[in-house]
Amino acid sequence: MQRSGFARGLVTLALTVGAALPVWVLAQDAAPAQPPASPVAPATPAVPDQSAPPATETPTEEVEPGAETSSLELVRKSDTDGQERRIRIVRTGSSDETGIFALCSPQEADPEDAPTLAVFSETGPGGVRITIDKNVIRVPLAVVTQQQPKDGEDGSDGRVEASAGTARFLNPDEVPPDATDRLTRCEVQATPKPAPDTVFVTQGKTELKGQKLVYDETDGIARIEGPVTFRRANETDPLTGSSERIEVNVDEEKTTLVGNVVLNSEGGRVSRAGRVEYDDAANLARLIGTPEQPAVSVKGGDTLRAGMILYDLDRNEVYAVKAEGGTITGEFVEGDTPGGGATTAPATAPTARPLPPSTPSETSDPDTDPNASPLGPTGPALPPTP
């Protein structure tokens, strides 16, 4: 089927950012169409070269059996270390009943350096899958803006907006003659409908939920707006929690829970902080206090406060790190003290403890050293609270 210079067809597509993309829109409901004889856009509309290697030759996310892969990558080159990091967006389904994949390149009336727009929608179980650093994100709808690549570069960065919502192709008679919106002129309509618990994030054993994701190349940070809730599987002591939002710093490869962060272990530990750097693979969370919300962890009658608290995600145990010029305070109930009286820790620890190594095998073993922290080397600071 041909219309308005856009080709529609059944295609297995893997797009690398920076490739020259004509003005066309792709769906998966018919055999590949031939380019129209008189295209509206200056470039000749076309479908991808079917002789090109299929997308399955490169690592891809799981998709429906028999489904083709429609994907796109943003490439970000860090100003600090010069490394390239990629954000991959994939539509996992293939049925026209559950979603679409569409591309819209600059048209005749657009500036030469205008970005390419891409729309991914999928209401099937796999949704639209976005991979950022260690996080795999599943959403129903994503609209991607991809900048034109600079000279000598194979890829380019851009912007991603993702949430609940739907997208569809417009009939030609639905497009107003004076339409200025790029997607409308490409006969595509995207309707975002952000709602709580519709953006699903998986990092290792941890599953988080939010309502909207926005990534922008200006600072390289993907922000997932909340309310955010999460759960980390653990056979003996599962962990749940909440925060106002999530920030994923692509350059630093760091995921941070931000704003009124609360961690609740089923065993009774409740921890709070203004920010929490979260690394599921290292079994470590860094609770970072702010003047408005210091880091604090409470279990039973034991309370620990510090500028930074390191949290062992497997054991749900903590120990404090004293920032330069900061203090560590706490109240601990001595189990063998008659009457269960509480003792107060010194307001200032003698020295700051070093941060733990990122590799768990390098940490001290609390099973062989009763004074060791489950997260790092022993030293002159408050004992870990179990």
Features:
386 residues, mainly beta, lipopolysaccharide transport protein A fold, 23-stranded mixed β-sheet, two-stranded antiparallel ribbon, 1% helix, elongated, disordered N terminus
Judging from the principal axes of the Cα atoms, what is the shape? elongated
Q: Could you state the oligomeric state of the chains shown?
A: single chain
- Unreliable stretches (pLDDT < 50, length at least 5) are 1-61, 336-383
The total number of structural domains is: 2
Helix content: under 10%
The SSE string, one letter per element, is EEEEEEEEEEEEHEEEEEEEEEEEEEEE
Question: What amount of the residues lies in strands?
Answer: 35-45%
Given helix and strand content, the structural type is mainly beta
Kindly report how far apart the N and C termini lie. Answer: 66 Å
Average pLDDT across residues? 76
Number of helices: 1
What is the number of E strands?
Answer: 27
| Cα-based radius of gyration, to the nearest Å | 26 Å
Structure description:
40% of the residues are buried. The chain has one helix at 182-185, and strands spanning 2-3, 6-7, 13-14, 70-77, 84-91, 101-104, 116-121, 128-132, 135-139, 141-146, 158-163, 165-169, 188-192, 199-203, 206-210, 212-216, 221-232, 239-249, 254-265, 269-279, 284-288, 295-299, 302-306, 308-312, 317-321, 328-333, 342-344. The longest helix is centred in the middle third of the chain and has 4 residues, at 182-185. It has 2 domains: 2-192, no CATH class; 203-362, lipopolysaccharide transport protein A fold, CATH 2.60.450.10. The protein starts with a strand and ends in a 42-residue tail after the last strand. The chain has a 23-stranded mixed β-sheet that branches. With 386 residues, it is mainly beta. Strand 4 and strand 5 (84-91) form a beta hairpin.
